[in-house]
Amino acid sequence: MPPPTDNALSVSEVNRRARLLLEQGIGEVWVEGELSGVSRPASGHLYFTLKDASAQLRCALFRNRARFVAAPMRDGDRVRVRGRVSLFEPRGDYQLIAEAVQLAGEGELLAALERLKQRLSAEGVFANSRPLPCPPRHLLVLTSPSGAAIRDVLAVLKARWPLARVTLIAVPVQGREAAPALIAALGLLNRQQALDPEQDVVLMTRGGGSLEDLWAFNDEHLARAIFHSRLPVMSAVGHEVDVTLSDLAADVRAPTPSAAAEMLVPDRRDLARRLTGLESQLQRCAQARLEREAQRLDHLRARLRHPGEVLAQHRRTLGELDARLQRAMRARLAVERQQLTHLQRRTSACHPRREVERAEQRLASLRARLEQATQRELARQRERLGGLARQLQAVSPLAVLGRGYAILQNDEGAVIRRASDTQPGQTLTARLGEGRLKVEVKRRLK
Length: 446
Hints:
Elements: H1 11-25, E1 28-39, E2 46-51, E3 56-61, H2 63-66, E4 78-88, E5 93-103, H3 107-123, E6 138-143, H4 148-160, E7 166-170, H5 178-192, E8 199-206, H6 220-228, E9 233-237, H7 245-249, E10 252-253, H8 257-264, H9 268-303, H10 307-349, H11 353-395, H12 397-402, E11 407-409, E12 427-431, E13 436-440
Parallel strand pairs: 3-5, 6-7, 6-8, 8-9, 9-10
Antiparallel strand pairs: 1-2, 1-4, 2-3, 4-5, 11-12, 12-13
Helix pairs in contact: 4-8, 5-6, 10-11
């Protein structure tokens, strides 16, 4: 062994030089292999091993890059990893610092799809955003008749909106013939719209699957056909994480077939509960409004008491008293006449002079009593009538005017109650106990 020298390198220096040689000598590369030992610690970083039949390479995918990886990263998957070869100096571990991960075999396909997506977006193919009628009058469903998607759609529609009118247009949803069949069916539906104007929504849907299963919905011609469709189109392809060109070109995208059905129709139970609540609210509001208006009417009726009504009421009372007085006088006179007649008959029946004289005296006495009673009754009724007249005069507004007061009215006949209701220079009418005056407001005094 050569003897030790004073210029020996430290372990850290050796690892640092090795790291620089690896990073500068190899640089950034694409490495393909099988995933093994995928670890996801709480830090958010991903650690895994790439291996083939004869070797393995430890890899690290840091958190800021891991969130952009769409691949599920499961053990056994074959992937392509882009990164730079480096060395972890504290432990001397040789590793690949990953920057991007793609499933092997899909990289070029996804790259081509991304280029197509950018081109169609630049052309405005993804600019559709027409609102869909809710609920649709006639829903046209483009899907496979044997798939789970149509069963999910029909089950949700039956539960939420049984009145929905649905027509299934059976088309293949995967394979080479799927895209042409979808394009032809969509064109036929647009041509038939003139014959059936109630056809107002097209739902293009299928269940989840692999990228190859969903590839028909990434067809460029299908995306353009959806963009040019006169009928609004909803697309619900695959699961929520699957986004195809058909989803982007459609007016509305739904994450799943069941979600599409929920978006297309309202829930009848929610509408029933809402209608019940609105009905109760309307009844309460109507009852409260009627009660308020009734109270307001009663209040206004109580306040609306015109002096003419008081005068008319006293006039009716006076008329009733006068009529009662006349009836009483006529009744009393009739009774007296009957008595007089009876006496006259008795007198005529008594021939002796004495009886005649006695009868005449009695008749004179009764006549005097009658006249006195009549005079007393007339005096009493006149006194009562005078009292009523004085009461009527006391409540009459004319009596108030007779005591020196006046009523001021503007040109419209409205009564002036406050000085603030007038303006200097305004002409008013002053109603006095006798006659009226035209006066002019000079100024208002506080």
